[in-house]
Write a structure and sequence with these properties.
The chain is mostly helical and about 180 residues long. The chain is built from 6 helices and 3 strands; from the N terminus they run αβαααββαα. The chain is extended, with a radius of gyration of 33 Å. This is Large ribosomal subunit protein bL17.
C-alpha cells in the first residue's frame, strides 16, 4: 500500500533530491523553459510554484526564504524582478508541462516545463480568436473581390460599348 507516500522520491536520497530540484528550479527561472522527464517535471512543479508564489511579496523575509531554497543570487534577482512582475496578477499555475514523447535510450517520457507567462508563441495564439467559416470564402473577402471585379468589368466594357454604339448610330441613319 502507498500510505503516507505523498511525493515521488525519484530514486534519490533526500539531499540529492532537494539539490536536484533546486538546480532545476534555478534553470527554469533563468531559461524560462527546460526539457526533462515527466516525473522530474511534476516534482519540479510542486517545488517551484510555492517559491514563485512567495516572490509576489517582495519583502526581506520572502527573499531569505527563497534564497534558503535556491542559494543563487542571480536566480533570486530574476525571480523577484521580471518573473514577479509578470505573474503578479496570476492566482497560481505558473508552469506548464508539454509532453514531447519518449526518450530513445531508455524510453523515459520527455517533456518541456516552462513558465506560462514567458512563452511568446502561446501568448500570440491566445490573443487571436479564430473565426469559424461555413464556406471556403468569407463574406468579407467576397465583398472587396466582387467590387474590384465589377470595376474591372465596367472598365473593359465601357470602351467596347462606346465603339459599338458609334458605328451603330452612323449606320442607322444611312439605312433610313
Amino acid at each position: 500500500m502507498r500510505h503516507n507516500k505523498k511525493f515521488n522520491h525519484l530514486s534519490r536520497t533526500a539531499d540529492h533530491r532537494h539539490a536536484m530540484l533546486a538546480n532545476m528550479t534555478i534553470s527554469l527561472i533563468m531559461h524560462k523553459r527546460i526539457t526533462t522527464t515527466l516525473a522530474k517535471a511534476k516534482a519540479l512543479k510542486k517545488y517551484a510554484e510555492p517559491l514563485i508564489t512567495r516572490c509576489k511579496d517582495d519583502s526581506t523575509h520572502s527573499r531569505r526564504v527563497v534564497f534558503s531554497h535556491l542559494q543563487n543570487k542571480e536566480a533570486l534577482k530574476e525571480l523577484f524582478g521580471p518573473v514577479a512582475a509578470k505573474v503578479g496578477d496570476r492566482p497560481g499555475g505558473y508552469t506548464r508541462i508539454i509532453k514531447l514523447g519518449f526518450r530513445k535510450g531508455d524510453g523515459a517520457e520527455i517533456c518541456f516545463i516552462e513558465l506560462v507567462d514567458f512563452d511568446e508563441n502561446m501568448a500570440k495564439t491566445a490573443g487571436k480568436k479564430k473565426a469559424t467559416r461555413r464556406s471556403r470564402r468569407s463574406a468579407k473577402a467576397e465583398a472587396p473581390a466582387a467590387e474590384a471585379a465589377a470595376e474591372t468589368v465596367e472598365a473593359t466594357e465601357a470602351p467596347a460599348a462606346e465603339t459599338a454604339e458609334a458605328p451603330a448610330k452612323d449606320e442607322a441613319p444611312k439605312a433610313e
